[in-house]
UniProtKB/TrEMBL annotation:
<dbReference type="InterPro" id="IPR029063">
    <property type="entry name" value="SAM-dependent_MTases_sf"/>
</dbReference>
<keyword id="KW-0949">S-adenosyl-L-methionine</keyword>
<dbReference type="Pfam" id="PF05175">
    <property type="entry name" value="MTS"/>
</dbReference>
<dbReference type="InterPro" id="IPR050320">
    <property type="entry name" value="N5-glutamine_MTase"/>
</dbReference>
<dbReference type="InterPro" id="IPR019874">
    <property type="entry name" value="RF_methyltr_PrmC"/>
</dbReference>
<comment type="function">
    <text>Methylates the class 1 translation termination release factors RF1/PrfA and RF2/PrfB on the glutamine residue of the universally conserved GGQ motif.</text>
</comment>
<feature type="domain" description="Release factor glutamine methyltransferase N-terminal">
    <location>
        <begin position="8"/>
        <end position="75"/>
    </location>
</feature>
<feature type="binding site">
    <location>
        <begin position="180"/>
        <end position="183"/>
    </location>
    <ligand>
        <name>substrate</name>
    </ligand>
</feature>
<feature type="binding site">
    <location>
        <begin position="116"/>
        <end position="120"/>
    </location>
    <ligand>
        <name>S-adenosyl-L-methionine</name>
    </ligand>
</feature>
<keyword id="KW-0489">Methyltransferase</keyword>
<comment type="similarity">
    <text>Belongs to the protein N5-glutamine methyltransferase family. PrmC subfamily.</text>
</comment>
<dbReference type="Pfam" id="PF17827">
    <property type="entry name" value="PrmC_N"/>
</dbReference>
<dbReference type="GO" id="GO:0032259">
    <property type="term" value="P:methylation"/>
</dbReference>
<protein>
    <recommendedName>
        <fullName>Release factor glutamine methyltransferase</fullName>
        <ecNumber>2.1.1.297</ecNumber>
    </recommendedName>
</protein>
<keyword id="KW-0808">Transferase</keyword>
<dbReference type="InterPro" id="IPR007848">
    <property type="entry name" value="Small_mtfrase_dom"/>
</dbReference>
<feature type="binding site">
    <location>
        <position position="166"/>
    </location>
    <ligand>
        <name>S-adenosyl-L-methionine</name>
    </ligand>
</feature>
């Protein structure tokens, strides 16, 4: 099968499976098989795919038709300024989370704690842009921490990673505490897209309760783990801003709710007085 025909066949197979953005996803899968960027496909000579290339593409298309996320199939996600390895043990970094990174880089501080680090995308992005800063990424999942360590090594960022359940076992104080915690209520899980519900780690999606459990823990322990004048930034679901901001305000912080590029509430910023 020639490359041009493979693009058409892959997109059509995904359309039949009901995959939104079928052509885009087929191109991402084929480009990964060929070891090029998707934007290069149109510039690549139309040639016959090898048997091995065709088999890998067909395998990838079948996986996507079963709603496996493209990032898991190709093994990476581009986030902020870097490419991060993604596995079934980590949450797929979303573009919306770049709002949190932008907010962190607007704040002062060189000692950074990222809780629930997953791929390490948040912490590594901040450290890469703020040379000289020090960072600790924590996660309850040892498998996720292995991915984060590998991402830091490949991107060339020095960071420490530690297995921890929120603040348990965390020593020292920090200028910035960052987190994209599990914020989906357990009652909402059944309504998620199968790409998310059936493939991404549930522990990174939901707290098993009302979706606010992690924020209660983060807010309650923030002052004890921040340097004077420190800040907390947490990603939230689009309806959670008032409730999460109130938790930090109750701990003495001044709070702001920051929107993402689509105008939806995305990040709560909590500024603690010096």
């Amino acid at each position: 099968m020639r490359l041009s025909a493979a693009r058409v066949a892959g997109a059509e197979a995904l359309r039949r499976a009901g995959i939104e953005g079928a052509a885009r996803d087929a191109d991402r899968i084929l480009a990964a098989v060929l070891g090029i960027e998707p934007s290069r496909l149109r510039l690549t000579d139309d040639r016959d795919l090898s048997e091995a290339e065709l088999a890998r593409m067909q395998q990838g298309i079948a996986a996507r038709a079963a709603h496996q996320p493209v990032a898991q199939i190709v093994g990476f996600r581009d986030f902020y300024a870097h490419r991060f390895r993604v596995t079934a043990d980590t949450l797929d970094p979303r573009p919306d989370t770049e709002t949190l990174v932008d907010a962190a880089l607007r704040l002062p501080g060189h000692d950074i704690l990222d809780m629930g680090t997953g791929t390490g995308a948040i912490l590594i992005s901040v450290l890469a842009a703020r040379r000289g800063a020090r960072g600790l990424g924590t996660d309850i999942s040892d498998a996720a921490l292995k991915v984060a360590r590998d991402n830091a090594r490949r991107i060339g960022v020095e960071a420490r990673f530690q297995q921890a359940d929120w603040y348990d076992g965390i020593d020292g104080r920090f200028d910035l505490i960052l987190s994209n915690p599990p914020y989906i209520a357990v009652s909402e899980m059944a309504g998620l897209a199968p790409d998310v519900r059936d493939w991404e780690p549930h522990g990174a999606l939901t707290d098993g309760g009302d979706g606010l459990g992690a924020y209660r823990v983060i807010a309650a322990g923030a002052r004890a783990h921040l340097n004077p004048g420190g800040h907390v930034l947490v990603e939230i679901g689009p309806t959670q801003g008032p409730a999460v901001a109130a938790m930090f305000a109750a701990q003495g912080a001044e709070t702001r709710v920051l929107p993402d590029l689509d105008g939806r509430d995305r990040v709560v910023q909590a500024d603690f007085p010096a």
